[in-house]
Structures are given as C-alpha cells and as structure tokens.
Specification:
Helix content: over 70%
Pfam families: NrsF (PF06532)
Number of helices: 10
Order of helices and strands: HHHHHHHHHH
Keywords: Membrane, Transmembrane, Transmembrane helix
Protein name: Anti-sigma F factor
Distance between the termini: 26 Å
Organism: Acidovorax temperans
Strand content: under 5%
InterPro entries: NrsF (IPR009495)
Length: about 210
C-alpha cells in the first residue's frame, strides 16, 4: 500500500475536534474533582461546629482566596500544557505571585509578633497533619485532571503532571480551608504550600508514566 493511500485510509471518517472541547473537559473535571473533594472532606473530617464563627474572621476568607488565587493560574497552565507547542512559561509568574505575596505578608506578620509567639504562629496545632490532609483531599481532582490530560496531547509530560498536581492541590487546599481551624498567616504560608506541593511533585514524577502516548 502506498503512503498516500495509507494516510487516506487513516483519515477516513475523521472529524474535527469540537471548539473548546478541552476547556469543557477541564470544567467537568473541576466540578467532579471539587465535588469529590468536598464529599471526602465531609466524610473524613466533617464540618466544624464553629464554622459560622470562623467565617466571620477575615483570615478564613484569606485562606480561601489564597487557594483560589493558585487554582486559577494552575488551571490556565494546565490548559496550555495539554496542547503541544503552546506557550505556558509566562503563566508561571501568575502561579508564583500569590505564593510570594503570602510569604511576604507572613514574614511581615512574624516580624511584628513577639519572638516567643513566632513558632506558635508557624506551627499552630495541626502542622503535622495539615499538608497530608490537603494532599488527601486533592486526590479526586488529581484523578480528574489526569483524565483530562489523557484525552489531550501533552508533550511535556512531567510539567503537565506537575500542573495537574498543582491544580489538584489548590482545590484540596480550598476545600480543606473550610475545615481547618488555623487562622495564622505564617501557618498558611508554610503548611498549605507544603500540602499543595505533595500532589504537584507526585504529578511530576508520575506524569511521564501515566501520560505516555
């Protein structure tokens, strides 16, 4: 069989990809992953009885805002990494910006606090479990993101896996913030970021295996 005939046979019945198909898949993954994380949070941790009082504190919304500020550029980066040849590096500054801002504000808060209170603000009472709780709640979104990438055409597999992990970690942190009793900014700057890094590193390690064509 000639090459032209072979190509024509392979192309028979091929249909163009619907416009914005990847965006719709990612939106469906966000809905499914977010719902899965919320369900897992309710099953494993439950709602705190003092949630209404926590919601009256500015830092409660600050935690949610920080996680959302990372989830948005992480989703944008994932859309680019899912396409071959798309420019994604300039998105990194929008990923780094909320982290740098929270670290700067946390450093300022520590400088304004008495020295005896600084470690308490960093460690809180849940530092041993917080990162792993966030990583646990990221699992539904992690699976959903890799489902999206498996149906796309990523070429930088480690970076694509890391992007999926970062988005998953941000969603996990967003959901966990509803349960988390910690309200100190230095705690969030250290342990929330650590929790989001767990699925990010896992995605970078497993991306080349799970996303291989």
């Amino acid at each position: 069989m000639k090459t032209d005939d072979w190509i024509a046979m392979l192309a028979t019945g091929a249909q163009p990809v619907p416009a914005h198909a990847l965006e719709r898949r990612l939106f469906a993954a966000l809905v499914a992953g977010g719902a899965g994380a919320a369900t897992l949070m309710l099953l494993v941790f439950g709602l705190r009885p003092e949630l209404a009082q926590m919601a009256a504190l500015p830092m409660f919304w600050g935690k949610l805002g920080f996680a959302a500020a990372l989830a948005l550029p992480a989703g944008w980066a994932l859309l680019r990494l899912a396409r071959p040849g798309a420019d994604w590096r300039r998105v990194l500054r929008w990923v780094a910006l909320p982290v740098a801002l929270v670290w700067a504000l946390a450093g300022w808060a520590l400088l304004q606090s008495p020295e005896a209170d600084r470690w308490g603000q960093v460690l809180g009472s849940t530092w041993r479990s917080c990162p792993f709780n966030i990583a646990l709640l990221s699992v539904p979104m992690w699976i959903a993101c890799f489902w999206v990438l498996r149906r796309a055409a990523p070429t930088r597999l480690a970076w694509a896996g890391a992007g999926a992990g970062l988005l998953s970690g941000a969603v996990g942190a967003l959901v966990y913030a509803v349960h988390c009793p910690e309200m100190a900014l230095p705690f969030v700057a250290v342990w929330y970021v650590a929790g989001m890094m767990i699925p990010t590193l896992l995605g970078a390690l497993l991306g080349p295996r799970l996303l291989r064509w």
